[in-house]
Amino acid sequence: xxxxxxxxxxxxxxxxxxxxxxxxxxxxxxxxxxxxxxxxxxxxxxxxxxxxxxxxxxxxxxxxxxxxxxxxxxxxxxxxxxxxxxxxxxxxxxxxxxxxxxxxxxxxxxxxxxxxxxxxxxxxxxxxxxxxxxxxxxxxxxxxxxxxxxxxxxxxxxxxxxxxxxxxxxxxxxxxxxxxxxxxxxxxxxxxxxxxxxxxxxxxxxxxxxxxxxxxxxxxxxxxxxxxxxxxxxxxxxxxxxxxxxxxxxxxxxxxxxxxxxxxxxxxx
Length: 269
Hints:
By secondary structure, the protein is an alpha+beta fold. It is built from five helices and eight strands. A four-stranded antiparallel beta sheet has the order 5-6-7-8, with helices on one face. A hairpin with a 2-residue loop joins strand 7 (197-202) and strand 8.
């Protein structure tokens, strides 16, 4: 579950960076949201300085990196790496103060939360879209992993919104959709991207960002370029219409211990 709050990596993975007093301390929130304040589940004792929490988050990443290295070493020692499809990714990023969201996730769809690592090592004998260790600039996402895994294993996937990343050529023009919470839910967010532009719709309205000049998504261009918003929206709708919708309703019940664990991770109030 690491890197994840509360940030409590083993002390061996901590480093001191010395920038601890550059920002004012944060107040502690009563919820897990983290807008303008520390989420309640993230609080580490009496510490309130943002820089310290960023250092603790970095320690979580170093801890995970070391453990992932142990896993890869074990696979190599057992002679399993050459025939393995290895996918390294993250389900989300973490707000570290961007857009005034602090040490939280699952609240917005800003780029710091949805632009995550995706590294694929293909099995021996499976062609890749580019040379080994080369970065691919095409727009891809988690929606592609299902088709990629099946294709790499020689299984024909049925039609999905994703595309196999085993293909020799990846789509040059494409719009990917991200959605947080179902239609009609409070605080619903959705976004579209073609790799350069992103349309982000939140509870307070719609925004357009040009990632080539504004990767931190600070300047909203929606009022200036409504045609771009309409074009991306239409392209996404056409792509969605080509694949039948698939979904399932799930009702979950948790006992007291399970609820406590979820609360400790910030998933329930």
